[in-house]
Amino acid sequence: MGMHPLKAARKACGITQRQLAIQLGLPGDGDKSAMSQIIRWEKGEKTPNAERAAKLAHILGFESGEEVQRLCREWRDAPAAIDASRH
Questions:
Q1: Which of 9, 21, 50, 62 has the most beta carbons within 10 angstroms of its beta carbon?
Q2: 21 burial level (CB within 10 Å; 0-12, 13-18, 19+)
Q3: pTM of the model
Q4: 42 with 4: CB under 8 angstroms?
Q5: What DSSP designation does 2 have?
Q6: Distance between CA atoms of 8 and 5, rounded to whole angstroms?
Q7: CA-CA distances (angstroms) from residue 57 to 21, 54, 68, 81?
Q8: 58-86, pLDDT tens digit by residue?
Q9: Phi-psi bin for 47: left (phi > 0), alpha (psi -120 to 50), beta?
């Protein structure tokens, strides 16, 4: 499986996780607790809520927050779909 779409977009924009946390206004102002939320999104452990997805879309150049959420769900579910096709 390739790089998570949020991570790929963030890197393409030249933004660090800390910078993204600050731009999103995550609690902690870019400290480790704020960046841990981004790490969980980029690992596929969590999907951003509608408000954060809309902000991510604006910052990272996606069409909409819905697109961000859809891409996150598709990326998260991809390993399960691959495993299911092997049985």
A1: 21
A2: buried
A3: 0.84
A4: yes
A5: -
A6: 5
A7: 14, 5, 6, 26
A8: 999 999 999 999 999 999 988 654 444 44
A9: beta
